Amino acid sequence: MTTDFPPLLGYADRLSVRAGETVAVKVSSYLKGRYTARLVRIICADPNPKGIGLTEASLTSDFSGSYQARIQPFFPGSSAEIALPPKPALPKIFTLSAMVWPTRLESGKQVVFSIGNADSGPGLMLGLAEDGHPWVAARLADGDWAEVILKGSLGERRWARLSVDVNSLTNTLTLRTQSGVTREASHVVSDKPIVLSTETPDNLIIAAAHTPGPRLNFNGKIEGPAIQEGNFKPDESDWDQSQNPLFAQWDFSKRISSNQIVDIGPYQLHGELVNFPARAMRGSNWDGSEMCWRHAPDQYGAIHFHEDDIYDFNWDTDFLFHVPKELQPGVYGIRLEQEEFQDTIPLFVCPPQGQRTARICVLVSTFTYTVYGNHARPDYDPSWKKKIEAWDAYPWNPAEYPHYGCSTYNFHSDGSGICHASHRRPLFNLRPGYLTFGASACSGLRHFQADSHLIAWLEHQGYDYDIVTDRELHDEGVSAIAGYTLVTTGSHPEYHTPETLDALLQYRDQGGHLCYLGGNGFYWRVAVHTENPSLIEIRRAEGGIRAWASEPGEYYNAFDGQYGGLWRRNGRPPQALVGVGFSSQGRFYGSYYRRTPESYDARFAWMFEGIDDELIGDFGFSGGGAAGFELDRYDHFLGSPENTVVLASSENHNDTFVVVPEEKLTHTANAAGVSDTELIRADIVYFETPAGGAVFSTGSITFCGSLPHNGFKNNVSGLLGNVFNRFLGVGQKTTEKT
């Protein structure tokens, strides 16, 4: 067993499934022997011993049993691969060339072009040497290599043309570079024949090489890679080789939304991308006249490759789970166990399409879970392990295993932001018992684990509920939630597509009852890849609290061609959907709400029945209070409906809380025209819709963390119970005081 790899991990090809469908499960174990697998229903994923703790129920399933353990490898690093047919054969004399924009010089050898054979490996590699200097190497007939290195490193994050002339008749390699200010050339003549491999070349790889050891991935942008017949002519002072016959040229400005690269040469040697590098990237000719790649694709002919791109591990399937049609919708886990180690793969089971088994629908935010998948937090500290061990919490943290691929809240090794996310790999922070904030005095949960506070509350209060995720909402539209009396979110439904927002708006306006129980929701716009629905793209354009910022001119998604960034900057602020929107953020601390005078109006007596307290939620397992971490507020000018009533507002937040960037105009002024202090609050709001529906929003990420307090007997639980019962049209069910 190696410490570089957790001993037992798995993932499923889907995060959500409808009853009656099938899930493929992939497992890798560094242990000898066999592992076991079984099905569990997850009720609570919070390991805090002061709460109800991890709560699960074991169930029988068709896959329960033992399986042979095996190691399944994975290979980070993006590239483009092209199969070379036997005919037409590569010319005896040709030139390889490409525009390159390197982003991590002096980080080891990096390959821009590799030509070789699947059995014998590369025969020609063009790229950068260990010190960042231009480099080319060709295999000789006796197995040795001829190499050329140009002294004089390329500029980092600067465009340059890199090319090599290969003359198999004279056994000559000539390496050339051309930047905006310099032109360099060097060559070597071998007394042994140059061969591209020991057999006929059958593959060409861009941005990597299939060597027996490292893959030598390139970090940076590549544009217009080409193969031309003939070599550079010394009398061509402008280095123009356009007169030489074209053998192949890959135009990355074509089919930008796909995973294919297009050869515009005579032989149509199209290729496929590996590990999804970033497309719709500014090319060397981008002049700033157009920000949308769809309007000037010729200026977006670059792809940004990274040595650490990894979005689908492509592990073989170990077993299938045929989900019974009669399985109750809910949150489940595929539990893997071997020796003292275990892993639980979450699975959200929805009812069969077109059917409902309950009146309540819990909308699970799997897009948000995926976008945050394997977030390696910069504040992680190994000292957290003491608490993790004491609580028997999930032991593995992505900060210690970045080679499993990090989240879109992290950076690539070259400093560029990660803009793609996928669940087809083990996601450490999508596990029962995972602690996001290991140093927190509270449970320190976010996302899946924090949302389980709501699931546990529903179970404890005896509510029947169905599960639908944003995947079904994106694919099926409003029909995925139509007919439910009540639809509720969890703590943080942050990432949405146009399809998911449209569906929620239609549900609301057709008379549905919508509960938004979180904060910082409906915030970022994302796109789903049309060829690989497990892949999500985020462009962090102007505005918003951003882990990184997209480069100017790269604000439009490659997947759908639409402007990325905040939904607010796309003309759809969350206030227009649920009455509140993101206003302030601090560290993981929670405060309380104070009821407004409007909440005592007779019209809202039903909501506060059994609650005499003026302060709501001055307790909780998330931050210590129901109003914390990320706060949403009412704003009429941003679309909060006219009839929205603010029933409670939070106060007394500590000095870590600040106004979010999109609210600020200058260092002294904000868009709302009030003091910053007034914007640091969470609002509980309520409004009714003309079709007979209603919306209840809490405006805080930590709200659900207060539900389990005192064995679920508290004013947050009572308030939510009153709202649910009103929406469901049933008698009073929860009237507990703090």
Care to give the gist of this entry?
By secondary structure, this protein is mainly β.
Strand segment tally: 41
Secondary-structure-derived class:
mainly beta
Share of residues in helices: 10-25%
Strand content: 25-35%
What is the makeup of the main sheet? 16 strands, antiparallel
Global geometry: elongated
Low-confidence stretches: 234-239, 732-738
Helix tally? 9
> Between the first and last Cα atoms, what is the distance in angstroms?
50 Å
Calculate Rg over CA atoms: 28 Å
Mean pLDDT: 93
Structural write-up:
This protein has 738 residues and is mainly beta. The chain contains nine helices and 41 strands. The strands form five sheets. The protein has a 16-stranded antiparallel beta sheet that branches. Strands 26, 28, 29, 31, 35, 36, 37, 38, 39, 40 and 41 form an eleven-stranded mixed beta sheet that branches. α4 crosses α5. It is elongated and about 95 Å long.
Question: Can you lay out the helices and strands and say which pair or pack?
Answer:
Layout: E1 8-12, E2 16-18, E3 22-29, E4 34-44, E5 55-59, E6 65-68, E7 79-83, E8 93-102, E9 110-117, E10 121-128, E11 134-139, E12 145-149, E13 160-167, E14 172-178, E15 183-189, E16 203-206, E17 220-229, E18 246-251, E19 260-263, E20 271-274, E21 278-281, E22 302-305, E23 319-322, E24 330-338, E25 341-350, E26 360-364, H1 366-371, H2 384-391, E27 420-422, H3 447-461, E28 465-469, H4 470-476, E29 486-488, E30 495-496, H5 498-509, E31 513-516, E32 524-528, E33 535-538, E34 565-566, H6 575-578, E35 580-595, E36 615-616, E37 627-634, E38 645-651, E39 658-659, H7 676-679, E40 683-688, E41 694-697, H8 709-712, H9 715-728
Parallel strand pairs: 2-25, 26-28, 26-29, 29-31, 30-32, 31-41
Antiparallel strand pairs: 1-3, 3-23, 4-5, 4-6, 4-24, 7-16, 7-20, 8-13, 8-17, 9-10, 9-16, 10-11, 11-12, 13-14, 14-15, 17-18, 17-22, 18-19, 19-20, 21-22, 24-25, 27-33, 32-33, 32-34, 35-36, 35-37, 35-38, 35-39, 38-40, 40-41
